[in-house]
């Protein structure tokens, strides 16, 4: 594949096609107001991305319940009162020619009480003195994901992306280390995957025929087993339960170090699965046009841009005008981000990433 192939349209199973193969990765920017309301900083950030030329733009982790919050200033979709701000964002993205999705999130056992979170573990052994969720509580959170998707549809988004990565609640339930339940949501792989599948099935049932569903999956840490994740993913792809799979890799070149897939790239373990009409994309330090095009050669249908999109909100536009384009080297001075229109809230958040904002820069 060549860089020009990144600008070919990508049809999806439901709704309109992506205009190109660039998707803006869901990024937590910690800019929202208390209660999950989008701030003017959120809206301005999303307007910048909307003008950036992406085929699809996702919001950052947007909580489906107030108690599912993980970090400060996280956006919410657990109340109809959130609809005005979300509607404004969806209209901005659509008005600039892109597709839009809300990333639906619940932190599970990682919910942070400092910000009003209620730790909600799959197992009673995960957090001292915190009981496992009851079956009824799991079903309530499942239904909150579905209601969140219906709100996203009402706000005018083209779809939602279900956050099943990084040890958050759906990922947590998949882990045989973090999930020792004996009800229908624990034990076998099928039971541990049930939470995720019921969320996706519920969204498909309750939302319209053109509504798009993505699913974000990570592979490392939290006791997750690569073979099990591959098996579960194979079923979801075969049943065409989703429109696109987003593999959240720390580095898309990373190699499996042990087990049956040792020596293969993490990406290849999933890219060689039959996927019918479902589209596959990956994130992971994609910082040049050439590297993005190489992902298509390795089996991806689209690429997810994270750090490169933070540095240059119009990354796809820049690539289209220069097929040799590379992102600026990290770390960058804070003033570089400020001149690009980034808020102090977001810059302060990025300082915690370690490798993003040059230490000592004002």
From TrEMBL:
<dbReference type="InterPro" id="IPR013785">
    <property type="entry name" value="Aldolase_TIM"/>
</dbReference>
<dbReference type="InterPro" id="IPR051799">
    <property type="entry name" value="NADH_flavin_oxidoreductase"/>
</dbReference>
<dbReference type="GO" id="GO:0010181">
    <property type="term" value="F:FMN binding"/>
</dbReference>
<feature type="domain" description="NADH:flavin oxidoreductase/NADH oxidase N-terminal">
    <location>
        <begin position="5"/>
        <end position="320"/>
    </location>
</feature>
<dbReference type="GO" id="GO:0016491">
    <property type="term" value="F:oxidoreductase activity"/>
</dbReference>
<keyword id="KW-0560">Oxidoreductase</keyword>
<dbReference type="Pfam" id="PF00724">
    <property type="entry name" value="Oxidored_FMN"/>
</dbReference>
<keyword id="KW-0285">Flavoprotein</keyword>
<protein>
    <submittedName>
        <fullName>NADH:flavin oxidoreductase</fullName>
    </submittedName>
</protein>
<dbReference type="InterPro" id="IPR001155">
    <property type="entry name" value="OxRdtase_FMN_N"/>
</dbReference>
